[in-house]
Design goal:
Blueprint: H1 5-21, H2 25-32, H3 36-44, H4 53-61, H5 66-99, H6 106-113, H7 115-161, H8 184-195, H9 208-220, H10 231-238, H11 249-259, H12 264-275, E1 282-284, E2 290-292, E3 297-298, H13 299-304, H14 309-312, H15 315-329, H16 336-347
Antiparallel strand pairs: 1-2, 2-3
Helix pairs in contact: 1-5, 2-3, 2-16, 4-5, 6-7, 11-12, 11-15, 12-16
Pfam families: HTH_31, PG_binding_1
Protein name: Helix-turn-helix domain-containing protein
Biased composition (Acidic residues): 88-101
Length: 348
């Protein structure tokens, strides 16, 4: 699949959602907090946003179903990888141009240097030709060995738990359960999350909402928050140590009004735009970073504030942290998309 095709499929999906919604770019910009020109660039395929947040808000405003949200997240991730690949190729071309010659020109340049230089290249080239296959074989052996050890470990762990009646430890669910999967293993994960207090649909489809709840569960159980249901997460799901219940949107709204006494309505609007007032809302980005909780505190801000993902999922800590950021800046520019949406709504 070419880099051109990937963004175009992503853009075509966005266009279909927009056309079905019947909303103009102006209306969508006001409701999502993105600029009209940015949305037009997304839908035309001329730009793939590096942050999934505006794409997710766009789809929700257009009325996308859970299945459509899952497919959109997949298309965005593939398109974003194509974008990053193009950037890397561009950097390589730029480096070659800075050197004043293409990579293939190096042997020619050496040859022009004289017979002694040519002799050096002739001596080095056969060694490289012999070394590359050897290095390739060594790399392959390392990969195969690592894969075998991982599979053996997983099989031993599954064998230890296979006969206890837990579906996630049966042969049918031996592999980790993750994004894009649609089967009984996902349904079991969703059922266990719901039993632990999570608010999500049990529909057998591992989409963005399930990803968020799995990640929140992992954070609250001190597991690696990778969003994938591996052996440790499976064990924790069958024996949860804490509930996934948190504050209701009503309680979140009331507390924000209390903390942001000077700008209560404004702060509530920002939080509602960011997370729908959901304390356990987690948004992953393709660069591996996440945004956490009520005000979607980014990993960068979290480090600046001396907090942890677990603290960021606590609504009181999250609201207080957001208030500190607001006080420090004197505005809500830490949340640019939602701040633009708020200003547009007030001016219209």
């Amino acid at each position: 699949m070419t880099a051109t095709v990937d963004p175009e499929r992503f853009a075509a999906f966005l266009r279909s959602l927009k056309e079905r919604s019947g909303l103009s770019y102006e209306a969508l910009a006001q409701r999502t907090g993105s600029s009209r020109s940015s949305l037009h660039r997304y839908c035309s395929g001329s730009y793939v946003p590096p942050d999934y947040g505006p794409v997710h808000r766009f789809a929700l405003v257009c009325g996308a179903s859970p299945t459509e949200l899952r497919e959109l997240h997949r298309l965005w991730a593939v398109a974003d990888m194509s974008r990053m690949g193009d950037e890397r190729e561009g950097e390589g071309d730029a480096e070659a141009e800075e050197e004043g010659q293409p990579p293939e020109a190096v042997p020619t340049a050496v040859a022009e240097a004289g017979p002694s230089a040519v002799g050096t290249v002739a001596a080095v080239t056969p060694w490289r030709r012999r070394a590359l296959p050897i290095l390739g074989v060594c790399f392959l052996l390392l990969v195969v060995g690592g894969t075998w050890m991982a599979l053996a470990t997983r099989q031993r762990a599954a064998a230890e738990d296979a006969d206890d009646g837990r579906l996630l430890f049966s042969a049918a669910c031996a592999e980790p359960v993750g994004m894009g999967q649609h089967d009984s293993c996902v349904e079991e994960v969703q059922r266990l999350l719901a039993d632990a207090g999570a608010d999500l649909s049990v529909d057998s489809s591992f989409g963005p909402q399930t990803l968020r709840r799995v990640t929140a569960f992992q954070v609250l159980h001190d597991l690696d928050p990778d969003g994938v249901v591996g052996t440790e997460t499976k064990r924790a799901l069958y024996d949860p140590k804490t509930r996934l219940r948190s504050w209701t949107p009503k309680k979140v709204r009331q507390r924000i009004h209390q903390v942001f006494a000077e700008e209560g309505d404004h702060a509530v609007a920002i939080a509602d735009c960011q997370s729908f007032l959901d304390p356990l809302h987690i948004l992953p980005n393709t660069n591996g970073t996440r945004n956490w909780g009520v005000f979607q505190i980014s990993d960068t801000r979290l480090r600046e504030l001396g907090g942890t993902p677990r603290e960021a999922l606590e609504p009181e800590w999250n609201i207080q942290a957001a208030h500190r950021l607001w006080k420090r800046a004197g505005n809500f520019d830490d949340w640019p998309y939602c701040e633009r949406a708020y200003k547009k709504s007030k001016s219209s």
